[in-house]
Amino acid sequence: MRTSRIRVLPENLTNQIAAGEVVERPASVIKELLENALDAGARRIRVETELGGRRLMLVEDDGAGMPREDAEIAFERHATSKITSLDDLHNIGTLGFRGEALASIGSVAKVALLTKSVDEKSATRLTVEGGVRSEAKDGSRPHGTTVEVRDLFFNTPARRKFLRSPATENYHITSIVTHYALANHKVAFTLTNNGREVIRASTAADLRERAFQIFGPDVVESLLPVSGGRELVAEVTGFVSAPRERRSSRDGQYFFVNGRYVKDRIISNGLSEGYRSVLPQGVYPVALLFIDVPKEEVDVNVHPAKTEVRFRRALAVREAVADAVNASLRQAGIGVGRTGTPNADPVGDRGVSGTEQLSRAASADTSGADARRKDAPVLAQQEFDLHEQPTENSAESLREAGAAPPASESPGFGEVSARAVEPDQEAPADANRIPATEEALRSAPPPFDSALSIARSIEIGEIDKTKIRPVGQLHDSFIIAVDEHGLLLIDQHVAHERILFEIFRQRERDSRRESQNLLIPETIDLSPAQAVAFDEISGDLEKAGFEVSRLSGGTIAVKSIPADLPAEVVPNLVKDLLETFDSENRGRAGAAMRDDIAASMACRAAVKINTRLTPEKMSWMTEKLLETTSPTTCPHGRPVVLRLSMRDIERKFHRT
Ligand code: ADP
Ligand code: MG
Question: Atom 20 (ligand 1): residue with closest C-alpha?
Answer without folding.
Answer: 36
